[in-house]
Amino acid sequence: MTAPDAPTPPAHGRIGIVQGTALYIASVLGTGLLVLPGLAAGVAGPASIVAVIAVIGLSIPLAGTFAVLAARYPDPGGVASYVRRALGDTAARMTGYWFMFGVCAGAPVVAVLGANYVVAIAGIDRSMIPVIALAILVPPFVANAFGVRVAGWVQFVLTALLLTVVVGVVALAAPAVQPQSFTPFLPHGWAGVGTAVSLFVWAFAGWEVGTHISGEFRNPRRAIPIGTAIALVVTAACYLVLQIITVGALGASAGEGAVPLLELARLGSPGFGAAAVGVIAAIVALGVMNAYLAAFAKLGASLATNRDLPRWFSKGAEAGGIPRRALALTAVVVLLYFGLMLLSGLQLKPFILVHTSSMVAIYAIGMVAAVRLLPRGTAGWWMAVIAAVLCAGMLILAIGSLLPAAGLAVAAGSVTIVRRARRRRPDAAPGHRGQRGQEGLDTAASRATRS
Asked: Which domain of life is it from (predicted)?
């Protein structure tokens, strides 16, 4: 039996540094590009640049901790597997449910955001948004059905295109930057900067996604830290440069429009601008979905392996395996959320709250697990301590939207209560009791082997 804090032997998957870095970049450099630069400029003015720098600093210990955990414990269960080692089965089940059934609410949000941009740019009737959103959802599911290796190469292409278009839009808008746009620097005071920080926290979320596919890396101990470092530098540079250009080129009007990237592109090339932003919207939506679906599928299979979901979904949990059954379950969950979104009149806020509250809960419990798992006094352990403190602050900021996460936690706890009640229930026939006792021993032995 492996000791709780002993590292798992390195996995031998097929993802290299290039593919892994692309998946990490897409997980973080997501739909925030479409709206956050303008929103942050609207609430903080030029000082929104300070907010971006602050969040980059806050992201370093969080991303670093997840990289250390993923490299040391490559497991498709991701954060849930770390929590299982450190805090037990019930806490791990909560973490898995938060990601599988809570974070998953963000998938249709991404698709609808992409569809909104396409509709606005192409002049299509808004009644076509659901159709376009479904069209955005289909390709990532198909790519992941052929395995994370295929999804990784698809992600590499999508990420390369995304970065190319972002650089192009910034280059087009850069000549329009005016020095006077940066004064006054604090039009809304430091309170506005705080609001901008809270917005950009969500832009830099996504570092946990790589933990679920860590077992698919050829050399996780080497590839994951390198991929994380490159992704952190690239995403930080993209958001920082884009924020500077947004403030400098659009000035006081930066926060007025819902499509700031479209406005930036039009400054340099009205004809090319609309097409460029349309490409950005499609690439961002497809890229984010592609990265997250790989994580959802692997997590679902891992949860089934640990009997937190029906065992039928466990196929494909092993490194190199394709968890098509868990991917199908993910499709059902996404379609349910999408159906609820249609019934709500395409209201995004309730589903964003489900997503973000689940993310905050995952980060908080994941950092607590990291503090307990990582060797005390090491660089990884200190990053985990710092990240745990920061996550506690995030929990306080998100206190008003934690109800969905609390509901999933209750569901996970209820499973534990039901299982304990079944184990304690006396059987009428002695033979059944003996058989149940043997099954309990087999289950305990199985759990010991897995640990």
From this structure: Bacteria
Give a yes or no: residue 3 inside a domain. no
In a domain, 203, yes or no: yes
**Angle, to 10 degrees, between the axis of helix 189-203 and the axis of helix 48-72?**
30
* Amino acid at position 72, single letter: R
pLDDT digits (tens, 9 = 90+) for 336-345: 999 999 998 8
Where are the alpha helices (H) located in 251-378, listed in sequence order? 260-268, 270-305, 324-343, 349-373
The contacts of residue 421 (CB under 8 Å, 6+ apart) are none
Rg (CA), the chain: 23
Cβ atoms within 10 Å, residue 350:
16
Give pLDDT tens digits for 378-402.
Answer: 988 999 999 899 888 777 766 777 8
- Tokens coding 354: 């489900």
CATH code at 171? 1.20.1740.10
Measuring CA to CA, which residue among 390, 356, 396, 355 is closest to residue 371? 390
Residue type, 414: S
**E strand or H helix at 415, and its extent?**
helix 403-424
Q: How many domains does the chain have?
A: 1
* 8 A C-beta contact, residue 368 and residue 87: yes
Q: What is the pTM of this model?
A: 0.71
Asked if residue 11 belongs to a domain, the reply is no
pLDDT given for residue 436 in this prediction: 43
Domain assignment of residue 66, yes or no: yes
Q: Are 63 and 225 in contact (CB under 8 A)?
A: no
What residues does 217 pair with on adjacent strands?
A: 15
Query: Tokens in use for 71?
Result: 């490299």
CB 19 within 8 A of CB 153: yes
Q: Indicate the pLDDT class of residue 203, thresholds 50, 70 and 90.
A: low
Domain that residue 59 falls in = 17-450
**Residues belonging to the chain:** 451
